[in-house]
Amino acid sequence: TYASASCSCEAARKYDDDYGGYRGGDDDDYERYRGTDDDFDDYRSRYNDDDDYNFKHDDDREDDYKDNDFDDHHDKKATTDYNDEYYHGEAKDDDQDEGQAQTGEQFMLGPHILVQPVTAIDASSTSVYLPAAAREAPGVWYDLHTAERHETAPDARVVSVPIHPDRVPAFLRGGAILPRRDRPRRSSRSTYTDPFTLVVAPDATASATGELFLDKYDGFDAEASMTVHFSFDSGVLKNRVGALGDAARAPPASTSPVERIHFLGQTTARKVIVRRASGEVVAGVEANFDAATATLTVRQPKVKIGEGWSVELQ
């Protein structure tokens, strides 16, 4: 379906224009233009690329549904609210956004990932506004796909980045630790005990924090949930597990191994020491340094996401 991004509050509002069977559109539009209209193919590709960062939504706008005040007033008010909450639209007075050129399309996915949809046809680059935590502070962001580090100054928060046909420009905030699972699956149940990868993105002070909430996947149960806290400071990554209501009912993912740890923004190869909560040193763990991406990767640290441990960079 190509209606996927249409109702998303996070997405640029201009995406609320479904094609192919919606709002009086022709179901055959896709077949009619596919492969014959480069602009149509480019638009379709960009439209679907943006959907990587949004939940699937479908419009249901049959003729027998009457318009109501929500469509005319509250929807506009919601748009304004979202523009204020995220890095959308016009800047506020006395805010660091003031005077900065912005596209009005980029949005935050959670607290750490910034996405810039591509809406122009045949564009080779796009501008992205990368803010900081405070007006005078440097803004540090990492390209989510290439790990390239971007640092913006108070008077220059906008950067130009190249556009690639296979992905949407997205950035990870400096100071964040992002847990993710990299194995593609055909069902969510298959991911329950999949290994985790941690992406450590240091800020201007070379520190970062993050959290991961784990539950039993089939409903909320406070006694069977767990929150994992990550922190990186002074070259040491620590994994601390919050209080668990019932240790005998730990969520399935608590036993998931940590498969990789990527330290972004590194300048040289470094040795690593992995310690368990007891202080025991884990033997046989090595790190590889990729100078092209300035990334230090620890592979198979032999620890689990649901236990305490630390990784020291030397």
Question: In summary, what is this structure?
Answer:
The protein is mostly beta strands.
Structure characterization notes:
The protein is mainly β. The chain has three domains: 13-74, no CATH class; 89-173, Golgi alpha-mannosidase II (Immunoglobulin-like); 176-313, Golgi alpha-mannosidase II (Immunoglobulin-like, Sandwich). Helices cover 11% and strands 28% of the residues. The protein contains three helices and 18 strands. It has helices at 29-33, 38-50, 69-85, and strands at residues 107-109, 113-115, 125-129, 139-143, 149-152, 158-162, 170-173, 176-180, 196-201, 208-214, 226-233, 236-241, 258-263, 272-276, 281-282, 287-290, 295-299, 309-313. The strands form four sheets. A six-stranded antiparallel sheet has the order 10-11-12-18-14-15, with no helix packed on it. The chain has a five-stranded antiparallel sheet with strand order 1-2-7-4-5, with no helix packed on it. The chain has a five-stranded mixed sheet with strand order 8-9-13-17-16, with no helix packed on it. It is globular. 27% of the residues are buried.
Topology:
Blueprint: H1 29-33, H2 38-50, H3 69-85, E1 107-109, E2 113-115, E3 125-129, E4 139-143, E5 149-152, E6 158-162, E7 170-173, E8 176-180, E9 196-201, E10 208-214, E11 226-233, E12 236-241, E13 258-263, E14 272-276, E15 281-282, E16 287-290, E17 295-299, E18 309-313
